[in-house]
Amino acid sequence: MRLAIYPGSFDPITYGHLDLVARASKLFDRVIVAVASNEQKQPLFSLGERYDLVRLAITPFPNVEADTFDGLLVDYYKKRGGAVIIRGLRAVSDFEYELQLALMYRKLCADVEAVFMMPKDTYAFLSSRIVREIARLGGDIRDFVPEHVKTALQVKLGSAVRTSG
Ligand code: ADP
Hints:
Layout: E1 3-8, H1 15-27, E2 30-36, H2 47-57, E3 64-69, H3 73-79, E4 84-88, H4 92-108, E5 113-117, H5 128-136, H6 147-157
Parallel strand pairs: 1-2, 1-4, 2-3, 4-5
Bound molecules: adenosine-5'-diphosphate.
Adenosine-5'-diphosphate (ADP) binds at residues 8-10, 14, 16-17, 20, 87-88, 90, 94, 119, 123, 126-128.
């Protein structure tokens, strides 16, 4: 059984993340979207909220599940029985940071393999941070996140998030 772990902050999950989930679900028997606690990043959504948003978003994929983890990713990786770690590469700007992370995983746990996936070009500019900013400023985020995520942003940020048009 080929198990892949897709870790991240998912604050909140976007269509860019989901594009990778869809690709990974075809390549691996089972995919775990692992939501990192990442409290030091002061996320907009709590861990429980981010987990719930991921859980709802992945319902179309029967071999994909959601989980949360705290602490080192390699510890979580070992706990889940070893697998491939999936990360996304949007642009060259992601590369240096992701390479550094992947080499550090390997240093901490020799048999970790990281697999990098590229999203559809239309999602290459998309990040949770940009979505949060656009939402905060009242912009239209319908093309970037599923409906339930848009609603959650609306609730979290107040009426600024555009509901139509
Ligand atoms: P982290 O804080 O761990 O970077 P994110 O939720 O921002 O968490 O991202 C998790 C992973 O998903 C990262 O590897 C990131 O590069 C990737 N990712 C985020 N947005 C996109 C996107 N639009 N297309 C492809 N990969 C993405």
